[in-house]
């Protein structure tokens, strides 16, 4: 089974993450980016849905078992390359020339929750899973681009609370605070997500240009403001 794969359901491309907890390391990030390229270049899909094959987890974010040894070996170039690659994924998702929908099929923690914020819409299973940013407890400050993604998807009063406290939100709480479009039992999550996605068949070239204008400030943060933080090599990891 491929680490990441996709199927087509009419005009909707469904990308499935098959890498266990779908933690971010170079192999996983490159696999996701490759499949996103394939969907754009080799299909006529107009909407992208992402889901996880894991029964409990959408994504638990950065693969610290990979990254900590890299930092401990003082291989700072590899660490910097990783964060630039992670930003490529965030940027690619944010500006993807289709409407995008994340089906949170389980826990979305840390980088996994941040990545979900780069999607245009989110649905979340209500019978299992939390949405959480534990970085304050891990001692890992967010990059400016990451904060931009959080502000995009989460009302500021709730983002501030989650940022400062590492609060874990259920799907119902996420729906209440407009972080997800809908909380659904796992039995209906994909049906609800796909029904929603099939109603969002917008022209790619229009979506691309509208996102470039709408998210200009976030893109500036990723492309410009993040760079000195990454180049400083102060990753506070390990």
Automatic annotation (TrEMBL):
Q: Which GO terms describe its biological process?
A: fatty acid beta-oxidation
Q: Where are the transmembrane segments?
A: 94-118
One Pfam family this chain carries?
A: ECH_1
Question: What CDD domains does the record tag this protein with?
Answer: crotonase-like
Q: Does the keyword Ion transport apply?
A: no
Q: Any idea which UniProt keywords this protein has? A: Isomerase, Membrane, Transmembrane, Transmembrane helix
Which Gene Ontology molecular-function terms are recorded?
Answer: delta(3)-delta(2)-enoyl-CoA isomerase activity
Checking PANTHER family in the record gives:
ENOYL-COA HYDRATASE-RELATED, ENOYL-COA HYDRATASE_ISOMERASE FAMILY PROTEIN
* Name this protein carries in UniProt: Enoyl-CoA hydratase/isomerase family protein
Organism in which the protein naturally occurs: Desulfonema ishimotonii
